[in-house]
Amino acid sequence: MKLDKPPSWLWVILLVTALVFAWLGHSTIFADKSATEANRPYVSLSECQLTAYSPPYMPHTQVLGSLVECLEYYESGGNLLAVGKAGEKGVLQFMPSTFQHFCVEKYHYRNDIWDPDIQRACCADMLKDNLIHHWTTKNLCVHIDA
Do 85 and 26 share a domain, yes or no? Predict the structure, then answer.
C-alpha cells in the first residue's frame, strides 16, 4: 500500500521525540555559552529560512511569534510604556513615523502606537515583508546569513 503522506499520528510522535531530545540536550547544546547567553530568547534562522524551511507542523505564525517576542524582550523588556532616547514608543519601540507609515497606512491598523497588540501584529507583518532591519536588536534574536 502506497501512502501519499505520512499519517498524522507519525507527526505527533516525531514532534514529541524532537521536544524530548531538545529538552534533554539543552545543557549540552549551551555547554560552551554563558548562562546569560543560554537563557536568552534566540532564533537562529536566516531570513530565507523563515519562509523556505518551515515544516508543516510549525506554522509561520509560531516562528514569527517567537521572533516578535524576542524583539519585544530586547527592545523594551515588555514595558508597555517604554520610551526610547530617540522617541521610540511602546513594547516594540516604534518611531512614530515608522508606526504611521507601516502600521497605519500600509497594514491598516488602528492609529494607537501604545497598543501592544497592534505593535505585535504590525511587527509580524513587517517581518513577513523582510523588514527586520527596522529593529536594532535584530542581531540578538536572529542570525542573518550573508
Answer: no
- pLDDT per residue over 27-75, tens digit each? 444 444 454 444 554 444 444 344 433 444 444 445 566 889 999 999 9
The three grid cell numbers given for residue 82, joined into one nine-digit string: 517604554
pTM for this one? 0.57
Q: What's the number of domains the chain is made of?
A: 2
107 contacts 131 by C-beta, under 8 angstroms = no
| Residue 29 shares a structural domain with residue 47 | no
pLDDT tens across 132-144, in order? 899 988 888 876 5
CA-only gyration radius of the chain, Å: 18
What is the C-alpha separation between 92 and 89, in angstroms, rounded? 7
- The whole domain housing 54 covers 41-141
Question: Counting beta carbons within 10 angstroms of the beta carbon of residue 104, is it exposed (0 to 12), middle (13 to 18) or buried (19 or more)?
Answer: middle
Please give the full DSSP string across 85-132, using - where no structure is assigned: TTS-BTTTTB-HHHIIIIIIIIS---S-TT-HHHHHHHHHHHHHTT-G
